[in-house]
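Hello, quick one for you while I still have it in my head. A protein chain has come my way and I'm curious about its shape. I'm sending you its amino acid sequence along with the backbone structure tokens. I'd be grateful if you could look everything over and explain what you see. Here's the protein in full, and shout if anything looks odd to you:
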Amino acid sequence: MARTNPLQFIQQVRSEVAKVVWPTRREVLLTTVMVFIMAALTAVFFALVDLAIRSGLTGVLNLFG
């Protein structure tokens, strides 16, 4: 691998960073809100699944014990 001096490295880094398409503030806000909504829905789903499994297991254990 070819070695570059620090000045060339910094120039290359600056040119690559210039190619990055940064999201707008609205896009960041929208995706952040969507992540929180999906996390809340996932938490509710797993809480309901946990409740169903616990109720079913308690019913089976009460039936046999």
In short: The mean pLDDT is 94. The chain is about 85% helix and 0% strand. Residues 24-65 form one domain. Residues 25-64 form the longest helix (40 residues).
